[in-house]
Amino acid sequence: MKKLLALALALTMALTLAACGGKSDSDVKYVKDKGTLVVGMTDFAPMDYRDGNGEWIGFDADMAKAFAESLGVKAEFIEITWDSKAMELETKAIDVVWNGMTLTDEVKSLMGVSEPYCKNAQVVVLSADLADQYMSADAIGSLTFAVENGSAGMKALDSLNIPYTAVDTQAKALMEVAAGSTDACVIDLLMAGAMIGPGTSYPQLATAAELESEEYGVGFRKDSDLVKTFNDFWKSAYDKGTVLSTAQTYGIAQNIIEK
Length: 259
Description:
alpha/beta, two-stranded antiparallel sheet, globular
């Protein structure tokens, strides 16, 4: 009987230690062991988009490659449905959400998030010859809108009780306006700077009302040790000038938060 009791206690202790050991496994170790940092993102210039060879580039993409290199691994990019980003993290389909993600209260409740690194705003985009008529939130109620599902732009329209058509990406929201399917869309100011106006893909479009100012951050799994590792990396990259030089490449240096 004593032997059986001793065996049971030993087994219980072994299981407890195994469980503790499982908990101590870090995301940093997990990423290093598999050799890849899987980045969840969408097509969102100037943060993440493909070049002529089909390679992901942009401010976030370039910095994600640098962060992965600092971990001794490769960055792998996967396009995700934006409103399922938290689930993609938790199921380990991706390791990080890095795509000009607005640090909302909801995001902070669902993920471990980095310190903010970039300032942004949500802006109304519509035909350039109409823009001056819609420079305030009070003026836009009569417009029809397209907006990315799950985005900060969608939440801005919800707060104003303005109906909209939800689409998969901000790029598709812009396409809806360009095609005349909707009057306007709400997208990130950074994307608007890269995608609309003279010399861009949509020269006939312009920004109108600014609805909300915000900050971008990077998302990880809850309680992930990658959060601190990322913040340390970012401070070092900022001090070395890498952050600002990369931001200058993509025309967003004025939006970077000083560290």
